[in-house]
């Protein structure tokens, strides 16, 4: 299976999980309990997270908890040349939907990457070492190449696979919070 086929396989698995709303919610609750209890979360004053599409992990729950705890919340916008920039949002922020179906903030409160404590990195498939296959644009790998802060991903067990070749430009996340490994986190 090439990366394109793996992406399609992962999307199919995530959509299948999304059809089982109770199970998906149970898994999200378990993963979020681990994440919110983590040192990464507790130490972060600013958290960057993408607004998920309906079949992905529901990141609105992360945003809601960050607002409750007084953390700065950042959401990315895609830029030309497959680049990302993160903008501060609040509960009143309005969004626009991109051609990729992702919501981006109508915010001008840009925050440079050296002021972002933690990025919750999205993806479709993840290896136990933190490498990921995303939607194929390379946006996050480019952004993370010189990012010095903390990274993690919130991953359903259905997304964990170790059967692909890592490419030289792939940047692993530092920690994966999941519902399947003992202790709930891998690559510590």
Automatic annotation (TrEMBL):
Q: Does the keyword Membrane apply?
A: no
Name the keywords, alphabetized.
Answer: ATP-binding, Ligase, Magnesium, Metal-binding, Nucleotide-binding
Cell inner membrane recorded as keyword: no
Matching InterPro entries: FTHF_cligase (IPR002698), FTHF_cligase-like_sf (IPR024185), NagB/RpiA_transferase-like (IPR037171)
Q: Which Pfam families match?
A: 5-FTHF_cyc-lig
Instruction: Tell me the protein family, please.
Output: Belongs to the 5-formyltetrahydrofolate cyclo-ligase family.
- Protein's name according to its UniProt entry: 5-formyltetrahydrofolate cyclo-ligase
